[in-house]
Structures are given as C-alpha cells and as structure tokens.
Amino acid sequence: MYWIEVKHEGLHKYRLIKGNDKFVVKQKAYLQERQWNEMWEKKKEAEQKKLNRENSAIEKAQKKSLAELQTIEALSQLDMIDKTLLYTLDVDDKIDWDALKDNSKFKAPQPISPQLPTYPPEPEKINFEPKFGILDKIISSSKQKKIDTANKLFEDAINNWIKTTEGKKEQYNKELANYEKLLENWKEKKKSFELEKKDKNDAIEKKKEQYLAGESQAITEYCDMVLSNSVYPEYFPQEFEIEYNPINQTLIVEYNLPDISDMPTLKEVKYVAAKDDYKESFITEASLRKMYDKLLYDITLRTLHELFEADEVKAIESIVFNGWVNSVNKATGKNEDICILSVQTNKEEFMEINLRMVDSKTCFKNLKGIGSSKLFSLTPIAPILKINREDSRFVDSYSVTENVDDQTNLAAMDWQDFEHLIRELFEKEFNNSGGEVRITRASRDGGVDAIAFDPDPIRGGKIVIQAKRYTNVVGVSAVRDLYGTVMNEGATKGILVSTADFGPDAYNFSKDKPLTLLNGSNLLHLLHKHGHRAKIDLKEAKLLMKDK
Asked: What is the secondary structure of 389-448 as a DSSP string?
C-alpha cells in the first residue's frame, strides 16, 4: 500500500491518497493538486475583483460595472449550486485511462556539439623572402642582415601559428570533453525519464487490467477516482471513504457533505452613487435552508449516478450512500460528525430514473432514503449500512490502569497486561474525538496489538498501535515491521510504543513515513497525562526475566 499526503494551504484542504501502486497514487495526487490549484486561481481572481471593488480610486462608472459583475458572479454561484445534479448528466463519468497516462516529452534540450575550430594557414617560407636592393648586392653584411631578419620573422610566425593552433586544439578538446560529459548526462536523464514514464504508464495499464478483471481493490480505487474527478466548488469538503463487498457487489460510500455555513448567500451588489458605496443583498434564511436541503439531495443522487454510470465492468449491483456533516453542535460548541441522510439503491432501479426531471428530495424519499424532513436541522440518523470496522482478531479488553502505581515497573509487566494498558491509554487519548480503540488477539510475535479508529475527517482514520515491552534498544527491524503492517492494514498511521528507547536507525527509518515512535519516557508522560504513575527500570526487568 502506498500513500501520498496532498495539501493546499490556501484552500485549507488535505487528502490522503492511498493505493497498491505508487505510480497510480502519484498520478492521482497530481490530478488532485492540479484541480485544487485551478480552484485556488479562481478564488484569488474573485478576491482580487472584490478588492478592486473596494478601491476608492475607481471611477463611478467602473464601480457600477463592477457591482454588476459581482452580481453576475453571485448569481452564477447560486445557479451552480442549483444545478449540482444537472451538471453531472452532461459528463461522461467513466475513467479515461489514457488521460491518466504520462504523455509528456523530455524537455531538457540536447547539448550542442562544439564546432570544429578554423585554424590559420601555416606560414610559408616564400612569403618571408627578403627583398634586396643594389646596396645589398654590394654590401654583403647588409644582405645577410635582411636574410637573418627574414628568417627571424618566419620563425616567429611559425611559433605563433603553432601556439595559436595548439591553443585552439586544446580549447576544442576541452569543449568536446565537456560536451561528451553533458551528452552522457543528458542521455542518462532522458533514459531515466523514459523508464519512469514507462513504469507509470505500465502501472496504470496494469491497474486498468485489474479493474477490467473485476479485482475488488481495483474497483474500490476506480470508484475513488470517479468521485475525485467530480467537480464541485472549492468550499465543498469532497472527502469520502469507500468500501466494496465483492460477494453481494455492494458499494458503501461515507461522504462528507458541506455545512450550511459554507454556502454562498450573496445575490446582488448595487453601487449607490450618492453615497459612493456598495450595497449587498443576500438570500433569505428560508431560501438558504431550502437551497441547502436541495443541494444535499442533489449531491446524493449525483454521487449515485456517477458511480453507476462509470461502472464499466458491471461490478456494482447496489450502493449505500451515507451523508455526513462536520458542524458545530450549538449546545456544546464542539465540532461533531453527524450522519444526516442514508440511502440504498440498486443499479437497475436507479438507472431507470430520469434525473433531469426529478425533484431530488422526492426522488430520495422514493428510494426509501432515511433523513430528517429538514436536513438543515442536522438531525442525526442511523446509517442503513456502515463501513465494516469489525475484525475477527478483536478480543474483549480489561482494565489495567487501576492496578498501576508508582511501584509498577512497566518493563517487567505481564506482556498481555502491557498491551491492555496501552489500549487503555490510547482509548483515553482518542476519547475526546469519539475515537475507538480495539485490542487484537495475543500473538507475542510483533503483529498488530491494537487498532484505533479516529473519526476526525482530516487527521483521522485507521491507526495501528503496537506495544513492545522491551528492555533493550529497539532496532530498525521492529519499525520496518510496523510500517509493513500499516501498509497491509490500509491504515493511515502506525504508532510503536516501547518501554525502552529506539536506536538512531529506527528514528531515521521512520522519517517521512506515517509512523510515531514513543519510548519509555513518552509512555510515562502519557500515563501521567491521564492521571496514572508508574516506573520503567530496565535493569530490574532484566534481572526478573533472567530469574524466570
């Protein structure tokens, strides 16, 4: 299992993309980043327009035009919300596998070969022959002097020619050697680029083959891509969790819906020339609630439509859609995740519906969907069917902390008690967010000791916890085992708790991975945080174990 965290600071968005193939995961992450970047550019453009609107230097005529433009944009936002369901009906929701492939070209220019130098012609002796006059014929010394001078000039010319020629040759050889080095480096980079591109495309092709072959994991990932490709406004959470049951061909979708506080309410902007100011008008509270309820029904039907329409291999017989909202509880002031609607429908029944003509609420009710008559009230309901978080490895737990005091040596504790102690501590740690911690069957082999389910939509998910009652430094092998378990379990994070410390290789391996290492000191601090005291004496534990 591979994973990539995708973040966008501007939009405050986060998504953990997982899959069995790193290249498919990379490509999905790239498409997600591109979509968010496009949203961010649109948002910045809108904010810039609003800033421009507030600029007092703009002439009144411009301000009036700007107000009209803001009105058009506001109405466009409201219209987009109103047409949430209709939008998807004009889109082919099937995954275009070729579009996922990397069709880019290697952009680095090939190094240019140096040009052969042009050498000056070799000086010829004839061009340096002295010219004699009448006196030179009479006075032999004068003649000899001219001969010597001519010879010296010729010798100097030859030396200069040799020096220039050799210099050009040496410079050319340097440039040629540098070119050959650059060319070799360029060829290696191009080869690496082409190989990586081929690996990516082969991985996507393999994933396509797995999907067409009806493999369960590939179907889940395919459905994830379908919903990720669905275009919504940037303020929508667009976070979801999917589980596929190949036995009854049922897909369960846990979908995070937008909160009513996220909805656009501006409907008109007017420029009041007399006051040189703008007046904004908003939709009524009743209209907002009506729009919000319709939107949630539209998203539900749209999601069902997209998944059924994209089902090329006829792997999905029915879908359960559970709509969740993360909102502030007015009574407690705390954020809560609430399931407010749930519906199950089979493909044959749903695909007979003419979605262009339906009233989404009536359609939802006709499908026997469950939800309050007023969704904006955020009334919790029990989902028809939830993603199964049960595990046959889970066993009944028992309390240990009540028997722990400052004389209890955790490093010498019974190993089963130690695992249950860790389970208790993390249960208290996750308690505030509504998390759940379950302990697995005793294995004594370093396998999964506990699994936590954190409901937080951003940082949460399935967390593997392993407890190591060690008296020696924990090496990298235990951390590698944990990482492998995290991947096999499809978890979002792994936590390794030990009574001893971790070696430097263990810390190095855990860097840039979804792993947390808690040593003995961290464990004692966690105990103290939740009102308990104990000690860790490794020497004493070694002696006790030796006696046993």
From this structure: ---TTB------GGG--TT-BGGGS-HHHHHHHHHHHHHHHHHTTT-EEEEBPP-SSS--
DSSP run (H or E) holding 454: strand 450-454
Tokens of 362: 């009536």
Alpha carbon 409 to chain centroid distance?
A: 42
Structure tokens at 271: 């420029």
User: Quick one: CA dihedral 522, 486, 303, 370, positive or negative?
Assistant: negative
Whole-angstrom CA distances from 161 to 51, 130, 503 are: 71, 20, 68
Between 53 and 525, the more confident residue is: 525
Q: Is the pTM of this model over 0.90?
A: no
Q: Look up residue 438 and give its two tokens.
A: 């379950």
Instruction: Determine the pLDDT at residue 446.
Output: 44
Q: Are 344 and 325 in contact (CB under 8 A)?
A: no
Instruction: Quote the CA–CA distance of 491 and 441 in Å, as a whole number.
Output: 18
Alpha-carbon distance of 269 to 230, in angstroms, equals 30
pLDDT of residue 435 exceeding 80: no
Distance (Å, rounded) from C-alpha 399 to C-alpha 265? 52
- 20-40 tens-digit pLDDT: 888 888 888 888 889 889 989
Per-residue pLDDT, 304: 96
Nearest of 277, 215, 299, 274 to residue 20 by alpha carbon = 215
Q: What is the residue-averaged pLDDT of the chain?
A: 86
Distance CA 144, CA 158 (A): 21
Residues 415 and 471: their CA atoms lie apart, in Å, by 12
Mean pLDDT of 287-296: 95
CA atoms within 13 A on the CB side of 414: 7
pLDDT of residue 395: 59
**Three-class SS of residue 530?**
coil
Phi then psi for residue 412, to 5 deg, are: -110, 10
What residues contact 346, with CB distance under 8 A and at least 6 apart? 317, 318
Q: For 462-479, what is each residue's pLDDT tens digit?
A: 788 888 888 889 898 889
Which residues neighbour 102 within 8 Å (Cβ) at sequence distance 6 or greater?
A: 27, 197, 200, 201
Q: DSSP label at 367? A: T
